[in-house]
Design brief:
The structure is a single chain. Among the domains are: 197 residues, Jelly Rolls (Sandwich), CATH 2.60.120; 84 residues, PH-domain like, CATH 2.30.29; 139 residues, Galactose-binding domain-like (Jelly Rolls), CATH 2.60.120.260; 86 residues, no CATH class; 127 residues, Jelly Rolls (Sandwich). Helices cover 4% and strands 43% of the residues. It is built from five helices and 72 strands. With 966 residues, the chain is mainly beta.
């Protein structure tokens, strides 16, 4: 037995020595492979990766990713879990960027919208006051860009709109004194100076009835008082509630009492209203409006949304002590704004410098005002009490508020116009006449002469109205004191609309007579109007009853009252509350009317008008709304540009959880909905993104693409064909431990990074309800890799600097907003970079057992004190460290110290320093004995201060075949 043992040992030693004499074979590999998590590592070879963590692809191979830095140094509290964000860019104004976020509280039971005004790339905290606290029942807050530089926010129970601290004015008018001889002649009026100091109340003198208008310069004669300057208070007008009285030489002396009778003689009033919209919406200082001086101290500012401030850019400063008086239309009168604070005042002089006149929000109190017979907007009057200034730009501060619905500016035609002659018990139908242009009074007109209080007019429209516009024929007007009482129908009977503002009254010539000139008659529309049918039409009906007989008789001859045209101005209704918004062809889209049980519905605004939701160019509150497929709800949508052949197409991709549709067309006249897939949709709405990079859809076919997460994986869509992106199927395999948590798939987030041309996907896996896996797909190299930070973002969105540089902002649940791909660490924690090859067979033959004797690594030098740890795995073992160790004895014979199985080497890992020396590329060679049937290497390092971190170049090894694996 002893002899046999000696022989056996000799044979083993001889075999080992023979193996040592076998020539070594050299091999080396670069890092140009791909991460392949769906395949077993034994199937992917030495150049692909079992693990690729925090390493991205580049043209030469791979490199470490960047980390992220905190934007806000002070963490959010209370509402700290940011779930969505959006950058509003306000280019050309003082504040050019706003980062808006929806943040939930710790228990995820309530949410707020917060704003951070820090410039992109800089650090700064959120504003102390939230934009809003979301309403009861609010869901995920969704932001989208809208036309006219606005952001639209929807959460299922609210639709909000905002343009930042400054936006353009819809219209700007200035009241000024006209040249001599260009004025008009109002009737004289007497009143009593019963006010204090220089103010004269007009209780006993009716300036409006006398024909005076806001901004009028009135020459006062035949009067005395305590000095030569007067201001009349409480004169109602569309542009100003005060009129200066400029004294003449005939005003002399002083009196002991203020109770003096003042007489304003006929004539000598010169007023113009000048449109300065173009000049004052421009930032060019070469165009400006001079305000102040004799009779031109008033601006009328019209806005599509109520305001909380107006900013004035001063070219030439005022040098006279003065103040600004700011008033707004509240639906029944001009009233002073509350909480006014004048940022233009310096040393008691208003308009002394550029600044904002801020005041309490009027979003809940301002009402639409009809100005210049053409505009129905929110109106603000600003008057400089003394002095003069040159203003070259005016901007409006419109607060965060509900989406508004203002008139589209298109007159509505009546569907019936009936004049009732009670004496004949007959209705005269003038529908055709008031809807067509007439050239003569002989025919084609409506005649109202002789209407009595027993007669009436019935006018009907397809929409509820807020005003009628009358076009009278030349001088064929009413010359008797009378007005119309206007009634609407509430479903049971006609009810009065209330106060009527009649601008057909030309009272400077004829007193309070309606229909004395072409003009507008308007009112505050009631909320309970009801549609009805009469005269063979169905619509909204109005009854007009005169308060006295209408007559054209002046004592000279009988002249008829002739109406050429009548138009209506619609009463705009509130916009319904949708789940999310989008934009298409410069229209705002409101999508998924879940509250109304119409989850497949989309409403749209007029083009380039986010505040106009009425008229034939809009969805008209359901009349022309878009409906996508069955009633299953829409989840997401985005606009997509592409070229097919020689044609450019702009489409809107509409997504449900399991369906995809495409909207084409430019407006209601050619909108068309096409089903793309009834099986593939998007259950994770905030994964939808677009990439304008020319993605290769097929050979020689490159397109812009939309990308989103479906229930079965990532989708790429170019407007024509849906493609699944392969490579991460294991995350959608319910039998895999890494499978996405389908019950929380809606919490997934995705975004396109334009700098690296990568699509990032955050998903919750296993039992996690928050995102705990970060997968990145390179659209250039068409490969996946994984990011593993210390804390995972739960939201991310694209932002841009003022010079157009794009980057990505995100947020983590500790109350911080982050700039992603910025910095060399995860805020403070180092970045772990791991590259692990597949299992490979050095000879290329699975029948061979091999021994790796030397290992070489080369990479770019890292200038910080970190090393790369290289670990070896044999025989597809997933753990470092083997169950048997071969010991190298002095005589170079290898002896199995445990179980006689050829296994791994004497070292489980090796360290290669990357921070030593000054060479651009570092390399090292390690001698070892790494034995096995299959081999695999892992490269691991952490960096905290090196941009791009690990940048490996190549690795290699020498090996020899030991024996057959039998």
């Amino acid at each position: 037995m002893k002899r046999l043992l000696i022989i056996f040992l000799v044979l083993i030693a001889s075999f080992a020595m023979a193996q040592e004499d076998t020539p070594l074979v050299e091999k080396w590999h670069t890092f140009k492979g791909a991460w392949m998590p769906d395949a077993d590592p034994a199937q992917i070879g030495p150049e692909n990766f079992k693990t690729l963590q925090n390493m991205r692809y580049n043209t030469a191979g791979i490199e470490g990713v960047q980390g992220y830095t905190a934007v806000n140094s002070t963490a959010l509290t209370g509402y700290l879990k940011i779930r969505n964000g959006f950058q509003l860019r306000s280019e050309g104004y003082t504040q050019e960027t706003y980062n808006l976020v929806q943040a939930e509280n710790t228990g995820l039971t309530a949410s707020q919208v917060l704003v951070n005004k820090t410039a992109i790339g800089s650090q700064g905290d959120f504003e102390a006051t939230e934009i809003q606290t979301d309403g009861t029942g609010a869901g995920l807050g969704r932001f989208s860009e809208g036309p006219q530089g606005v952001v639209v926010y929807s959460n299922g129970v609210e639709n909000k709109v905002w343009a930042g601290d400054e936006t353009r004015c819809a219209k700007v008018f200035r009241a000024e004194r006209g040249a001599t001889g260009t004025g008009y002649t109002p009737n004289g009026v007497s009143f009593v100076d019963s006010g204090d100091a220089d103010y004269i109340d007009t209780d006993t003198g009716d300036f409006k009835a006398a024909g005076f208008r806001g901004g009028d310069i009135i020459v006062v004669t035949n009067s005395t008082s305590n000095n030569d300057t007067f201001t009349v208070r409480y004169v109602t007008s569309w542009i100003n509630d005060r009129i200066y009285l400029i004294s003449t030489d005939s005003l002399t002396g002083e009196v002991a009492s203020d109770a003096e009778t003042i007489t304003v003689a006929d004539g000598n009033v010169y007023t113009n209203v000048v449109d300065f919209t173009d000049e004052l919406n421009s930032s060019a200082t070469s165009e400006y409006a001079d305000i102040g001086g004799s009779g031109s101290g008033t601006f009328l500012i019209l806005s599509a949304r109520p305001l909380k401030g107006i900013k004035f850019y001063v070219k030439t400063a005022n040098t006279t002590n003065s103040t600004l008086t700011v008033r707004y239309w509240n639906g029944s009168a001009w009233t002073a704004v509350a909480g006014g604070s004048d940022g233009t005042t310096d040393d008691s002089k208003a308009f002394a410098k550029t600044g904002t006149y801020s005041f309490d929000s009027t979003a809940s109190t301002a009402k639409l005002y009809h100005a210049e017979q053409t505009y129905c907007l929110y109106a603000y009057s600003v008057r400089l009490t003394a002095g003069s200034a040159d203003i070259y730009q005016i901007t409006a501060d419109s607060p965060w508020q509900d989406i508004r619905n203002v008139w589209d500016g298109v007159d509505r035609q009546p569907i019936t116009f009936q004049v009732r002659d009670d004496s004949e018990s007959t209705y005269y139908d003038y529908t055709v006449e008031v809807n067509t242009e007439a050239n003569t009074t002989a025919y084609g007109v409506a005649e109202l002469d002789g209407m009595t209080v027993s007669d009436h007019i019935i006018i009907a429209f397809e929409e509820a109205m807020s005003a009628f516009r009358w076009q009278l024929f030349q001088d064929y007007i009413n010359k008797n004191t009378a007005s119309f009482t206007i009634y609407y129908h509430d479903g049971d009977d006609y009810q009065t609309v209330g106060t009527v503002y009649d601008e057909t009254v030309r009272d400077r010539f004829y007193g309070s007579n309606t229909l004395t000139q072409s003009g507008i008659t308007w009112w505050n529309p009631p909320a309970d109007e009801t549609i009805r049918s009469e005269f063979g039409v169905t619509g909204y009906f109005y009854k007009l009853i005169p308060t006295a007989t209408l007559t054209g008789t002046t004592g000279d001859a009988t002249a008829e009252i002739v109406v050429n045209h009548v138009w209506g101005v619609p009463a705009t209704i509130d916009v319904k509350k949708f789940k999310f918004s989008s934009v298409f062809n410069n229209r705002v889209l409101l999508c998924n009317y879940e509250l109304g049980g119409e989850g497949n519905r989309v409403d749209y605004s007029v083009s380039n008008a986010p505040d106009v939701w009425n008229g034939i160019e809009s969805s008209m509150d359901g009349v022309q709304s878009l409906y996508f497929g069955g009633n299953s709800p829409l989840t997401a949508g985005t606009q997509l540009y592409n070229r097919f052949g020689s044609n450019i197409f702009v489409t809107w991709v509409a997504l449900k959880r399991n369906e995809t549709y495409l909207l084409t067309g430019t407006g209601p006249e050619d909108f068309s909905i096409k089903p793309i897939s009834l099986n593939v949709g998007c259950p994770a709405p905030l994964t939808l993104a677009t990439a304008e990079i020319g993605f290769d859809m097929a050979q020689d076919v490159t397109r812009n693409i939309a990308i989103w997460l479906s229930a079965d994986g990532l989708i790429v869509f170019d407007g024509a064909v849906i493609n699944f992106v392969k490579g991460i199927d294991k995350y959608f395999d319910a039998t895999n431990a890494d499978c996405i948590n389908y019950s929380s798939i809606a919490n997934s987030r995705g975004w396109f990074d334009p700098e690296y041309k990568e699509y990032n996907l955050l998903i919750p896996t296993g039992s996690s309800t928050t995102c705990d896996t970060w997968l990145v797909y390179s659209l250039i190299y068409k490969k996946w890799f994984e990011k593993v930070p210390d804390t995972y973002p739960q939201a991310a969105w694209q932002v841009a600097s003022t010079v157009g540089e794009k980057s990505i902002y995100g947020a983590i649940d500790t109350g911080y907003m982050l700039e992603l791909e910025d910095g060399t660490a995860w805020v403070d924690d180092p970045i772990e970079q791991i590259v692990e090859t597949g299992d490979f067979f050095p000879t290329g033959n699975i029948w061979d057992l091999t021994r790796i004797r030397m290992f070489k690594f080369a990479g770019k030098r890292i200038n910080e004190a970190h090393s790369i740890v290289v670990s070896h795995y044999s025989d597809t073992d997933d753990a470092v460290g083997m169950d048997g160790i071969w010991v190298d004895t002095d005589d170079c014979a290898w002896v199995d110290t445990e179980d006689c199985e050829w296994v791994s080497a004497s070292l489980a890992s090796m360290e290669l320093s990357l921070d030593a020396g000054i060479n651009r590329v570092v390399r090292d060679t390690i001698k070892d004995n790494l034995y096995g049937w299959a081999h695999r290497f892992q490269f691991y390092t952490t960096t905290a201060s090196t941009s791009k971190g690990l940048e490996p170049i190549a690795w290699g090894y020498t090996f020899r075949k030991v024996r057959r694996d039998e």
